[in-house]
């Protein structure tokens, strides 16, 4: 990682979110550096270049993003990818036929599909386990277990996993620990400081923050692991384009203020849902009744902007509800400034249908945006009243 003049690793998160990565353009002083679109870079002599040779291997805009996100995760190394799934794929390529991976039993549906349907047929073995149950985790462990995959909070059930405790168990048995930190973001939770070895992100979500880019990211401390993943990043080539990198960099500058508002608005929405008769159960790690609340308090700065709930009227009520909000847009994805509502069983988690990871069809997931809290609560209330 090259030296950087404008920020200091000792600066607070909010300062690094603004200053880590982009530095004023050395030729013009522009405070927003130009998006570097070149696919190749002139060399002074064979093998003598100025840090960049070919844009799949690296380019200045991607390097700025990688520096910035690595700093925010408190990591020594960062690698950007074309999507969250491309980032996950690079990490899973560390597994060889015969190796075993443990995934959460409510892992994101796309992760499940990649592990079970893409890596499974290549001879990689997997088990889906309730990671809040240490006995179940110990029972699922095998001599061949090389990776433990954690997601916390999970998508869509918002299960909280104790990263430090589970990482200790995995390290005692010689496995690497990966945390998908997409829901929390490094502003709310920093898995490497809790003992994880690898952090993955869908930067499509809160890091980009504006529903206008698809991207992924991997952060690690270990130099050898970083070299191996950089090799795979270049060899398999699942890299983001420069403009996508720029969009994520721009999004990250406001991450801290956006996350504060997402969390605040989510609390107001939870208060409405918890008191509404059309709602059977609310899942939000910030609620005192949530089984992972105490762990979340310990390992997160705040509880995030995603709220899930099951409808008392079952699947038909859930389907009716998601189609009857005005401000909450019915759409997949999450983590952007606008509020979204969706039906996981038929939308984001349809790939888990018919599997042990299938989602309750009465479940609705909200990505609470940064609009007016009053408007958001009123919008949900009219939809819930109608569904009652
Ligand atoms: C927790 C989580 N991880 C990974 C992904 C995959 O990211 P992408 O859609 O950017 O490939 C998603 C997408 O929804 C997600 O929610």
Global mean pLDDT: 95
Q: Extract low-pLDDT stretches.
A: none
The gross shape turns out to be globular
Q: What is the CA–CA distance across the termini?
A: 56 Å
Assign a percent range to the helix content: 25-40%
- Please tally the helical runs, counting DSSP H or I stretches of 4 or more residues: 13
Sequence of strands across the biggest β-sheet: 1-7-6-5-4-2-3
Describe the biggest sheet? 7 strands, mixed
Percent strand: 5-15%
Q: What's a quick, concise take on this entry?
A:
The protein has 388 residues and is an alpha/beta fold. It is 35% helix and 15% strand. The strands form 2 sheets. A 7-stranded mixed β-sheet has the order 1-7-6-5-4-2-3, with helices on both faces. A 5-stranded mixed β-sheet has the order 8-9-12-11-10.
Describe the model:
This protein is of the alpha/beta class and 388 residues long. It contains 13 helices and twelve strands. The protein has helices at residues 13-19, 60-72, 84-92, 109-119, 134-140, 163-172, 185-188, 223-236, 242-252, 255-274, 293-299, 314-322, 373-387, and strands at 77-81, 100-104, 125-129, 145-151, 176-180, 198-202, 216-220, 279-283, 306-311, 329-330, 340-342, 363-367. The protein has a seven-stranded mixed β-sheet, sandwiched between helices. A five-stranded mixed β-sheet has the order 8-9-12-11-10. Helix 7 (185-188) links the parallel strand 5 (176-180) and strand 6. The longest helix has 20 residues, at 255-274. The chain is globular. The chain starts with 12 loop residues before the first helix and ends with a helix. The mean pLDDT is 95. Bound molecules: pyridoxal-5'-phosphate. Residues 83-85, 108, 110, 151, 155, 180, 182-183, 202, 204, 214, 216 line the site of pyridoxal-5'-phosphate.
